Amino acid sequence: MNFDRRRINGPEATHELIYENSSHVKHLNERSTRKNDELRPVFIKPGLISSASGSTYIECGNTKIACAVYGPKQIKNAPYSSTGKLNVEIKHAPFSSSIRRDPVKELEATHLSSQVTQALLPSLRLENYEKMQIDLFVTIIQDDSLDFGLLANITTAAGTALASSGLEMNGLVVGATVAFKEDEMLLDPSPSEVKYAKAVMTVCTLPALTQIAHIWQAGTLDINQYKQALQITESASRNIHTLIAKTLMNETNA
Amino acid sequence: MSDVAELSSVDYFAYSVATWSTVTAVGLLGFPRLITTLLLPYEKHSTGELLPKTELNGFERFLTIQSSIALLAAAFLLLQLTGSLSSTPIRQPSPYRLPSVTFATTALVFSSVLAFYADSETIGLVGKVHCIPAAALSVWGISIMIFEIDAATYRRLRPREYLNRFLENDLRMDGRRLDEFRSTSINQENEGSIDTANGSAVVRLGNTTMIAGVKLKTALPDPNREAGYVVPNIDLNPISNSKYKPGPPSEEAQVLSSRINDVLLSSGVLNQKDLTIEQGKAVWVVYIDVVCINFDGNAFDAALIAIVAALRNTRLPVTRYDFDNDRVLANPEESTSVPLTKTIIPTSFGLFDGKLVTDLNDFEQSLAHSRLTVVINEDGTLAHMSSQGRNMADNLDDSLDLTQRAIKIARERYDAIAKLII
């Protein structure tokens, strides 16, 4: 089933390219150039999408994400609710990963959406937006960090977009990811590092309040490592938080 | 649009009227005797002589309190209905702004006229004192109703008239001339290019931003037609504008994709015969996906320019067919460019009462009587032309004239855009 009347369809069966020498798949050992607790360069630009209430474009290494907030707007024909509703929709562009993501087969990234929603909820004051809905749309233009890293990057982008839309918030949420490779802890891991890690953990924090908003972890971990990981992600989040705060200040002053 | 609206004259009017009636009401409520005794120190006695007033009677007191409560309620209602006093943290544009101003002004006119002609012998100076601020406020209200419908309200209520005021002067809302384009940028290599795609381009037409990504795959050829596949799809993402909803492609996106597909196939930009890898065994499938990140009109031009630019920087790996395993093997080191026969550049126009307007934004596009699209080849010939909507002009001669002017503008546009594409 590869046919969708609403799209231009290609042939039924297609094959990904197979390269003759597998050495082509360059495992750029980035760690040779960056330290274990060093983030890839982060670029954040708020206010890119003109018709949205708030928006952000974020580049984190090669991961590129666009994010827009629409609303708050009134929910029509819905039963009364005393709090607002945050609706997160995440979508991968078909060309965002090395294997083409077929939009016909591709379901929305529901799991990632619910994780992002969980991470953002502590920052929002939804009780002030009764009967209203806030739409958050995310498009992943290029994915260079896999799901754990994406959760961190999307949360950071979404937090910035929500802040630039002028919503009432408790603070900015910032995400950071650590991969555990034997005894080493690798901050902001690349896809290959995630692949060979024994555990991965994404921590979303509210640096201004020194609170944790959300943790997602897979693989087995030593409790001590867990504590260490929290410290590493906390200091990384603090740095990103400073960057975002500066960017948002410049944006509002400009 | 941004929700926090700036305060306009309607808001100031609402604040002033509310303040005035609140002050009056509080005065009446708190010091009914003080006011009446200050302004009307004497009362006409049955004997005909004026005697100092001592006390309000029960009926007067009742009327005073009732009318002051009514004034307070009116002040609150006016602020609510104009949306000047917001009950939510973010101000919602109120649909009752102008009706509220009209209502308040009417009430004020009556009030001031009645106060002016009231019998000064019985109520003394109260009438004149009341008349002056009421008259001033009503004049303000009338002037708002006549002159100062703010632009945003006018635009929302009467979009076509709003736009026509600009077009009558051969100007656009953003200050452009009718045949001027928004600033256009094409990014193929540096910032914003996508490494996971085989070729990509980011095109910005004013606010409209489109990202095109090319992905290559292989497939068995169609036995009847020995040629590669080209699969263009345009996604009008909900991120790009509030009018697009999540889910399968909207009608607009479907129409756009199939129009682009038609142009690509009929103009023969890509030589599909050259997309064969091994006769009868394997051909290339060129997936071109365009994602709209920011939508502000003229999606067709932005998408097609992005596609052409993305195809320009797409590299086809050199391949060989592995007959033993029935598969295509690509050489990671060597690559060729995509078999593009030429460059095509589109230019879309809108027609407003016989006026040709280029590069419409979202607002203009929703109001255009008809649309015309011209796609120009490298040598200046026409690759494609289409028009939609009501007849372009009243008669055939005018239509031809318009078309010729459109082609001339499109040729100039070709030169400008072709320079931007590497």
From TrEMBL, chain A:
<feature type="domain" description="Exoribonuclease phosphorolytic">
    <location>
        <begin position="38"/>
        <end position="167"/>
    </location>
</feature>
<keyword id="KW-0539">Nucleus</keyword>
<keyword id="KW-0271">Exosome</keyword>
<dbReference type="InterPro" id="IPR015847">
    <property type="entry name" value="ExoRNase_PH_dom2"/>
</dbReference>
<comment type="similarity">
    <text>Belongs to the RNase PH family.</text>
</comment>
<dbReference type="GO" id="GO:0034475">
    <property type="term" value="P:U4 snRNA 3'-end processing"/>
</dbReference>
<dbReference type="GO" id="GO:0000176">
    <property type="term" value="C:nuclear exosome (RNase complex)"/>
</dbReference>
<dbReference type="Pfam" id="PF03725">
    <property type="entry name" value="RNase_PH_C"/>
</dbReference>
<dbReference type="GO" id="GO:0016075">
    <property type="term" value="P:rRNA catabolic process"/>
</dbReference>
<dbReference type="InterPro" id="IPR036345">
    <property type="entry name" value="ExoRNase_PH_dom2_sf"/>
</dbReference>
<dbReference type="GO" id="GO:0006364">
    <property type="term" value="P:rRNA processing"/>
</dbReference>
<keyword id="KW-0963">Cytoplasm</keyword>
<keyword id="KW-0698">rRNA processing</keyword>
<dbReference type="InterPro" id="IPR001247">
    <property type="entry name" value="ExoRNase_PH_dom1"/>
</dbReference>
<dbReference type="InterPro" id="IPR050080">
    <property type="entry name" value="RNase_PH"/>
</dbReference>
<dbReference type="GO" id="GO:0071028">
    <property type="term" value="P:nuclear mRNA surveillance"/>
</dbReference>
<keyword id="KW-0689">Ribosomal protein</keyword>
<dbReference type="GO" id="GO:0003723">
    <property type="term" value="F:RNA binding"/>
</dbReference>
<dbReference type="InterPro" id="IPR027408">
    <property type="entry name" value="PNPase/RNase_PH_dom_sf"/>
</dbReference>
<dbReference type="Pfam" id="PF01138">
    <property type="entry name" value="RNase_PH"/>
</dbReference>
<dbReference type="GO" id="GO:0000177">
    <property type="term" value="C:cytoplasmic exosome (RNase complex)"/>
</dbReference>
<keyword id="KW-0687">Ribonucleoprotein</keyword>
From TrEMBL, chain B:
<keyword id="KW-0694">RNA-binding</keyword>
<dbReference type="InterPro" id="IPR036345">
    <property type="entry name" value="ExoRNase_PH_dom2_sf"/>
</dbReference>
<keyword id="KW-0539">Nucleus</keyword>
<dbReference type="GO" id="GO:0071035">
    <property type="term" value="P:nuclear polyadenylation-dependent rRNA catabolic process"/>
</dbReference>
<dbReference type="GO" id="GO:0005840">
    <property type="term" value="C:ribosome"/>
</dbReference>
<keyword id="KW-0271">Exosome</keyword>
<dbReference type="InterPro" id="IPR050590">
    <property type="entry name" value="Exosome_comp_Rrp42_subfam"/>
</dbReference>
<keyword id="KW-0698">rRNA processing</keyword>
<feature type="transmembrane region" description="Helical">
    <location>
        <begin position="101"/>
        <end position="118"/>
    </location>
</feature>
<dbReference type="GO" id="GO:0016075">
    <property type="term" value="P:rRNA catabolic process"/>
</dbReference>
<feature type="transmembrane region" description="Helical">
    <location>
        <begin position="62"/>
        <end position="81"/>
    </location>
</feature>
<dbReference type="InterPro" id="IPR015847">
    <property type="entry name" value="ExoRNase_PH_dom2"/>
</dbReference>
<dbReference type="GO" id="GO:0035925">
    <property type="term" value="F:mRNA 3'-UTR AU-rich region binding"/>
</dbReference>
<feature type="domain" description="Exoribonuclease phosphorolytic">
    <location>
        <begin position="192"/>
        <end position="317"/>
    </location>
</feature>
<dbReference type="GO" id="GO:0034476">
    <property type="term" value="P:U5 snRNA 3'-end processing"/>
</dbReference>
<protein>
    <recommendedName>
        <fullName>Ribosomal RNA-processing protein 43</fullName>
    </recommendedName>
</protein>
<dbReference type="GO" id="GO:0000176">
    <property type="term" value="C:nuclear exosome (RNase complex)"/>
</dbReference>
<dbReference type="GO" id="GO:0071028">
    <property type="term" value="P:nuclear mRNA surveillance"/>
</dbReference>
<dbReference type="GO" id="GO:0071038">
    <property type="term" value="P:TRAMP-dependent tRNA surveillance pathway"/>
</dbReference>
<feature type="domain" description="Exoribonuclease phosphorolytic">
    <location>
        <begin position="344"/>
        <end position="391"/>
    </location>
</feature>
<feature type="transmembrane region" description="Helical">
    <location>
        <begin position="12"/>
        <end position="41"/>
    </location>
</feature>
<dbReference type="InterPro" id="IPR020568">
    <property type="entry name" value="Ribosomal_Su5_D2-typ_SF"/>
</dbReference>
